[in-house]
Write a structure and sequence with these properties.
Helix content is about 30%, strand content about 25%. It is α/β, with parallel strands linked by helices and about 575 residues long. It has a 10-stranded mixed beta sheet with strand order 1-20-19-18-17-10-14-13-11-12, with helices on both faces. This is Single-stranded nucleic acid binding R3H domain-containing protein.
Amino acid sequence: MQEKLPTHRMEITDDLDKLLHILPLNIQNAIASHPDKKSLIEIVLDLGRKPEARFVDQTCYLSEEVVSREDLEHCTARVGHFSADNRAGIEGTLHRISAIRNRQEKIIGLTCRIGRAVFGTILMIRELVESGQSILLLGRPGVGKTTALREIARVLADELEKRVVIIDTSNEIAGDGDIPHPAIGRARRMQVARPELQHQVMIEAVENHMPEVIIIDEIGTELEALAARTIAERGVQLVGTAHGNHLENLIKNPTLSDLIGGIQSVTLGDDEARRRGSQKTVLERKAPPTFEIAVEMWERQKWVVHEEVAQTVDNILRGRQIIPQLRQVDDEGKVSITRDPNLAPSNERLPEPQWETMMNAPVKPSGLRASGKMIPLQPESSPQMEFNQLLDNSWYQADEVNKIRTPGPNGEDWPVYVYPYGVGRSQLEQVINVLKLPITFTKDLDSADAVLALRSQVKHHGKLMQLAKNRQVPIYSIKSNSIPQITRALRKLVNMDNPDTPESADLRLFTKAGSDDEIEALEEARLAVEQIVIPQGQPVELLPRNAKVRKMQHELIEHYRLRSDSFGNEPNRRLRIYPA
């Protein structure tokens, strides 16, 4: 199946002259006269070796003279400051200069990567960017991940008018200098002092600047993966890149596997193992993925899209066939989308034998989300099949129980049966257990009294809205997976919420560990709100706390429908609470 999208010409600006200006004269002339300079990717200068130019499909020497220390000093004197990750830039451009040092910290090599603003590069995934779902880009170095991030930032900020914040660790997305490059449009850029602080700046961006979208380049540590999950659970759209060419690489990477839901070993019962035809100990996904969509960038104009990361990961772990969706741009700028069961990956895709086993494994009929751009595996469609597809996005998969009602204190029918969609399971269970709410979960929309869903999920899933409307089931939407948002929605479901008089918060809601330090910090915030901020209308500053405890305090303040900000530098960073 192949679909043609409208033709679109890509516009490219690279400021190549500004990069040439920092190079020795003989290298400048060699590049300026080269017929393929528009496809130049990198210039490599190593002490005592001939200078090299790397193009898309070839590498060549630029001079017969070897690079001297004077040549390297000539270059470094004309670029910006080298940061802790040995990267520098040229102010007002997107070029990146990376240094290689010897044991005495002297520069003995430079890699000058050409940074280009390519307008129109994301046409292949435009509708996915507009969906509001979080997107993860994967691919080898030089395939264009950062270029795509830059264009995504501009489209979201300028054309969709969203509040976009870029976490620019190496000043590679928005260029060197304090003024970001025009290629990112109206998006804002936060610089990172040292690479190891990237995860802290990610959290700071959410706490201080109210973004709707956060863009991150090179998620590479466990702390950054945890920060990404925290951001996603607050209802913020994430667009990022990670180390790894394909989705399978993340499954095998324990540091980054949390981005696609994390992997855990599970022991099955005899009957379940027999039903699956597998061993008793299997690998399964342990949580919803941080990124709902993954894009494998095989080449600059050849991308593979996984629109349902959770489903793809589950299929890979269970040895089922996965059917990649291939999107390509031809020389005329036309985008084609192909989804074919016979589409085989290239030899370089995954050398491991497991891939061949997965592709050739016998397949049981199963449904794919109907997007109009792929071949359905089912021979026909029905409302019940569409509803079953929706269930794949719900974490609640337990067997349905018979509805048993008992009268509430005011004659209500309790418990209330709720169908959860895209809402964090641990937060839901925590709120219900602590507050002892008369609520039971169900996977059967016909027996549900209400649907509880993330607002971003409801907006982009028309089938859920239509099915709920046909069954006359109300949908309660929440902005984010935070404890206060979930608490208010569930209390409203059972008519226990009074927005004018918020009750004193139960501190158990906001801490799972329940350590003395956490309880003390939450009690401090509660007393400040109830004894000073609300009755006296005065702002209050709390004692310095670490980032984890500050997040709990922020959620507690949100419970009282008040605003709070973090300010100051670590380790003295603290909260300030403002009256309504």
